[in-house]
Amino acid sequence: MDRTLESLQYLIAQVLPHRDPAFVFKDLNVVAMLQEFWENKQKQRAVFSSEGTVVYESLNSPGPPFVSYVTLPGGSCFGNFQCCLSRAEARRDAAKVALINSLFNELPCRKITKEFIMESVQEAVSSTSGSLSDADDPSTSIGAYHYMLESNIGKTMLEFQELMIVFQLLHWNGSLKALRETKCSRQEVISYYSQYSLDERMRSHMALDWIMKEQESPGIISQELQVAQRELEEARKAGQELRFYKEKKEILSLALSQIYSNQITPSSNNDQMDLALSGYH
C-alpha cells in the first residue's frame, strides 16, 4: 500500500505539478483537479479514441441523499459512494472517485503488456471451466478474451474497458448469441465491433431489440430495468466503475419510453414510467 501511495504521489507530481501530492485528495476543488488532469492528458495527446470532456450528471431528487455521476473522456463512469447531503457534495465525491481511478490508470501495472495478458488469461481460466490451451483458440471465450487483449497491447485498462463495454452490452442484449447462430466467428465479430464506439445509434439499435423482446415477453423491459437500477446503485455505493450498469439502464429506459410514446398520450407518459419502475422503489 505504501508503494502504491508513493507511485500515486509521483504521478500527481507529473500530471499536476502545481499540486501538493500529500494533500491532493483533501483539496476541496477536486472537480477542477479532475478537469486539469484530463486537459493535461489531451495536451500530451494521450487521449482516448472517443475524445470528449469530463461530464457531470446529477439525478433529480427532491432532497438528500443526492447522487452524481461523472463520465470521463473515453466513457468510463463513476459516482459518489458516500451519502451526500447536497448536490455540490455529491459532485465533489464523484470527482474524487474518478480522479483516484484516473491516477491509478497511469500506473505501469495498468498497462496491457505481454506479462499482464498472461496473468489476466490465467485468472480468467481459474475462474471458469476452461483451460490455458483455450487461449489459442479464438472460438472459445478465453481465446476471444486473449485475442482482444493482444489487439490492445500498450493501452491502459480504462482504454480497454471502453472496447469491452460494447461486447458486454452485446452479450447482455443477446446480439452475440444471434451472431454465433449465423456462424460468424468470434474473430469476425470482434474485428467488426472493434471499429465502433458506443453512441446514440448503437443504443437505439439495442433499444429496438428490447422492444422486440417486449412483444414476445410483455413486462421483460420493466423487469430488466429494475435489475439494472439495483445493480447501478450497488456498484455506485461500492465505488466501482459504472458504465455497463448505467448504459443498460439508459438503453432500457429508451426502449420503455418509445413503447409508451406509441401507446399512450404524452401527458400520461411520466406516470406510466413511474408505474413501471414502482417495483424497484
From TrEMBL:
Sequence similarity: Belongs to the LIX1 family.
Name of this protein: Limb and CNS expressed 1
TM region positions: none
A GO-annotated cellular component: cytoplasm
Gene Ontology biological-process entries: autophagosome maturation
PANTHER family, A to Z: ECTOPIC P GRANULES PROTEIN 5 HOMOLOG, PROTEIN LIMB EXPRESSION 1 HOMOLOG
InterPro entries hit by this protein: Autophagy-related_EPG5 (IPR051436), LIX1 (IPR029270)
Lineage: Eukaryota, Metazoa, Chordata, Craniata, Vertebrata
